[in-house]
Amino acid sequence: MTLKHKVAVVTGGSDGIGRQIVLKLATQGVHVAILGRNTERLTAVEKEANEAGSPKAKLYVCDLRSLSMIKEVVGRILHEFGGVDVLINNAGIWQKKMPLEELEEGVVDEVIQTNLTAQIHLTRLLLPALKKQKEAAIINVISKSGVTAQEGQTIYSASKWGMAGFTEVLKTDLHGSHVRVASVYQSGTRTDMFMKTGEKFSAEKLEKFTDPADLADVIVFMLSRPPKIWLHDVRVEQ
Ligand SMILES: NC(=O)c1ccc[n+]([C@@H]2O[C@H](COP(=O)([O-])OP(=O)(O)OC[C@H]3O[C@@H](n4cnc5c(N)ncnc54)[C@H](OP(=O)(O)O)[C@@H]3O)[C@@H](O)[C@H]2O)c1
Questions:
Q1: 3-state secondary structure at position 83
Q2: Of 43, 140, 155, 196, which residue is 20 to 30 A from 98 by alpha carbon distance?
Q3: Is 185 marked active-site?
Q4: pLDDT tens digit string along 195-231?
Q5: Ligand 1 neighbourhood includes 183 CB (under 6 angstroms)
Q6: Domains in the chain, ordered, with CATH?
Q7: pTM for this entry
């Protein structure tokens, strides 16, 4: 896909991997709708993306746990950008490692809603617009936890295996259409995702993790292949 002047929607664009995806797309001349909750971080990324070369980078405050907010933001994006070519489902939260019975009950719904239900709704609502384009793409940034069993990660893994299943069926359903679908299964990446749950990782451990900017390069590479080449699944590990 030729990226210049395409319109991309990036969830979780305010921080970590999503922020890097937004900035890399901006350097390719992509119009970007940046979704997140934190207005301060979103404002900073919006400014950086416009300075990095995006013809139009715009923030959208959207708590993905709210279906009414998702619907409202989808309506605004389609009105303000006139369409969408690329959807990057990236937003997500982690779950502290622990036995299932010790997990606070609220964590179950929060993780499933953010990592799975919201991405399904957003995709469902944007699909008619994606189908209108001559070429379009959906990339789901999942996790190694969507293909392997990670100890103490029942709910996080359930959300990611759910995304893996959702993605596989979407690929089948959209086969032969102009909408290509791909999944990314990455291992530890150096962002604040773990710290946000109160988990502390040593500096040595974090140092071994993938740099989010390198992962964003992989995603831009996947999107920018010639029309006859599509990378369906990419596993990125150290
Ligand atoms: N870091 C890793 O080691 C790693 C490994 C494998 C997979 N992943 C996956 O990669 C994706 C990105 O993770 P990351 O490491 O970049 O995490 P991060 O740095 O913590 O960023 C998470 C992003 O998701 C957004 N988000 C979280 N909850 C949201 C909600 N309810 N509504 C809207 N936005 C919400 C955050 O927005 P606000 O800041 O505005 O709240 C933020 O932009 C996630 O799906 C994660 O599961 C990460």
A1: coil
A2: 140
A3: no
A4: 999 998 899 999 999 999 999 999 999 999 999 999 9
A5: no
A6: 7-236 (3.40.50.720)
A7: 0.98
